[in-house]
Amino acid sequence: MAEGRRDAFSAFHPAVNFIFFLIAIGFGVVVQHPVYLTAGLLGAAAYYFLLYGKKGAKLLLALLPVACLIALFNPLFNTRGDVVLFLLFGRPYTLEALLYGCAVGGMLLLMMLWFGCYSAVMTGDKFTSLFGNLIPSLSLLLVMIFRMVPELARKGRQITEARKCIGKGTGAHSRYRDKAKEGLTVLGCLTAWSLEGSIVTADSMKSRGYGCGKRTSFRLSRMTGRDWGALFVMAVLAAGFLTFAAMGSTEAAFTPKLSFAALQGWNILGFAAYCLYLLLPAAIHIEEALRWRAWKSGI
Amino acid sequence: MKRSAIFTLITLFVLIPLTLWFGMQLSGRWYYLTSTLIVVEIMIPFFFSFEERKPQARELAVIAVMSAIAAVSRMVVPIPNFKPIFAVIMISGIAFGPQTGFLVGAMSAFASNFFASQGPWTPWQMMAYGVAGLLAGTLARGRKMKKPLPLAVFGFVSVLLVIGPLLDLSSVFTMLTEITWAGVLSVFGYGLTVNVSQGISTAVTLLLVSKPLLQMLERIRVKYGILDQRSFEAGKGDAQ
Fold first, then answer.
1. Mean predicted lDDT score pLDDT of chain B
2. What is the domain range of residue A272?
3. How many domains does chain B have?
4. Which residues pair with B173 in a beta bridge?
5. Residues B190 and B117 both lie in one domain
6. ipTM for the complex?
7. Contact B62 A112 (CB under 8 A)
8. Best exposed site among A90, A203, B32, B161 by fewest CB in 10 Å?
9. Shortest Cα distance from B13 to chain A (angstroms)?
């Protein structure tokens, strides 16, 4: 689970977090209007860096080349467009196709940034507490897997070390084949050990009353006034930009001719709503950080 | 009729066509959202019927162990390009049946992404990994197929032809600027090397450990009577 920094938006009810990302990602993967796209990228990047700090640059550095490649390669497949920049292998390389490639690369970047934020905010415990009533067995299963993964990794190390002690392990210089074989032996031991354990776990669960009554969740979350407020603001803003989008404020076509819905008149209202929506988590984060600093310096 | 059966029918004949129709009405890059929605809709009946069955504690514990082992084998195996995850999922499918196989696959993909990162690929991975268990559970349950060699061939072929391409489809919908045959083929061609290496590690794993692992799982299944197809039927009879 990606380790987030202290973040105020994460402290809201899981439903608020989940709905925010649902709308942001759903809208982001569909809209290719350059102005909306740029705003989305800035908003997502701002929150992403607030969450991850300097570590966040890593993902961005890994993704930028991919986005650039998508942009540069698109004109090779797609030769429609009026403005020919140059001829490549006898095929026109057009500005429109290049811009369209940029938009698709940008959308990929936007999606990855939002998912990066999602991973930091919607941790496993939040997901299971949110969906614990809707899918009780599956979320219990998820909790059990979360608990077992580190345990199995630890058991795996124990098995490996024990085998090394009796001279059966492999070192760093062993052959690939031996390493694979050793890994599979450990896998077999691990399965046997854990399955035995799982029966004990299951019997223990049963004797403690698994299956009678509602299950409680590790994370206590109740919708407070603050959560309802955030949900209300989100709903109003989302209704705003979704209505304008449905009316065509985000229409954009690249090939064969560039045509974007003009950002004027009432459309500006929709765009403003989108910008405010994007900045919501970052604003909440910064507001809390500032208040915290002011409070600390007051002592 | 059972609730989950009705639900499945609604999903197949109303929800999915509706999503397709709606997606086709819209211009622009709706195909990622449409295709992902359909993938999620296909998976819902599986999850729903699992919930409705109200699984016993022992069943849950065994599924959790198998999913966790699959997830760990995806993340912490120290050998590059060697991921036994599909083999673990397939073995669970063979031992406990297609439905459990699907669950083990989907849950291990979902859970391990909490440790790495969720992304646009999550639903596709859940689907593809689940299909690995489902296929193994349906096609490889016969006595002849359970021998290591036929299993290894089955594993290699199914990773190469079904599971790998399913995973590549998510790249098709996220990375391609336009869905054209040339573009799709180039994505699949690019994915081929990964799929071949995944297929080989699956085949090698199945060849070496399928026999002892299957014996172990079979022993547990018989000894504790968990995830037995017959006891499912009996349980269903009681519920009605």
1. 82
2. 9-128+227-297
3. 2
4. none
5. yes
6. 0.85
7. no
8. A90
9. 23
